[in-house]
Amino acid sequence: MHASPETEWAELALGALASEGRKAGGARRAVVELLAGQSCCLSAQEVADRLRGRVGVASVYRALDLLAREGLVQRIELGDGAARFERVVPGGDHHHHVVCERCGRLTPFEDEDLERAMHRLAGRLAHTVRGHDVLIRGECSSCARSG
User: Fold this and answer.
1) Which domain-ending residue is among 66, 92, 118?
2) How many other CB atoms are there within 10 angstroms of residue 60's CB atom?
3) Any idea what the Cα angle at residue 41 is, between residues 27 and 49, rounded to 5°?
4) φ and ψ at 105, to 5 degrees?
5) Are 35 and 85 within 8 A, CB to CB?
6) What is the CATH number of the domain that holds 140?
7) Number of domains the chain is built from
8) Which domain holds residue 30?
9) Does residue 28 surpass a pLDDT of 90?
10) What is the pLDDT of residues 89-120, one digit of tens each?
11) 12 and 72: one domain?
12) Which is more confidently placed, 128 or 84?
């Protein structure tokens, strides 16, 4: 039986932390397990709120920073002062985000044409491109209707 992508990521993340000589203690394990089950990004505060009573806020921030440094989560800056975090699946599929500048609604999206354009661009650059991140800003349809 094949493990789900979420389970595989959690095992990869906990294994990577262990291989770096770091303990996958209760806080780190709880953060990894929570992120493994998410389809999109969460702020550190959202992670802390969901783990309230089990993990302290400072431990959540430390775990997220460590996971980001290890390349296991992607830090997404939305410009609202609070970063969001989501798991990174090496060599796996990913999505991008559009954020409403009025209400803060974050919507993930995938676009094969955009991915092809990014690969073409990577071929023209004098850099090795290991990844990319697209964040589109604007107004969601609800905010645009409300004026």
Assistant:
1) 92
2) 25
3) 45
4) -60, 130
5) yes
6) 3.30.1490.190
7) 2
8) 1-92
9) no
10) 766 677 888 989 888 888 888 898 998 898 88
11) yes
12) 84
Instruction: Give Rg (Cα) of the chain.
Output: 17
The DSSP bridge pattern shows strands 96-100 and 135-138 to be parallel
Higher-scoring residue by pLDDT: 60, 15: 60
Segment 51-72 mean pLDDT:
90
Of 43, 47, 45, give the one whose Cα is nearest residue 32. Answer: 47
Contact yes or no for 24/14 (Cβ under 8 A): yes
What value, to the nearest 5°, has the Cα angle with vertex 22 and ends 16 and 27?
Answer: 95
Phi first, then psi: give them for residue 42, nearest 5 degrees: -130, 150
Task: Kindly tell me if the per-residue pLDDT of 14 is higher than 90.
Answer: no
**Please, are residues 90 and 9 in contact by the beta-carbon 8 Å criterion?**
no
Q: What are phi and psi of 77, to 5 degrees?
A: -95, 115
- Report pTM: 0.76
- Computed over every residue of the chain, the mean pLDDT equals 85
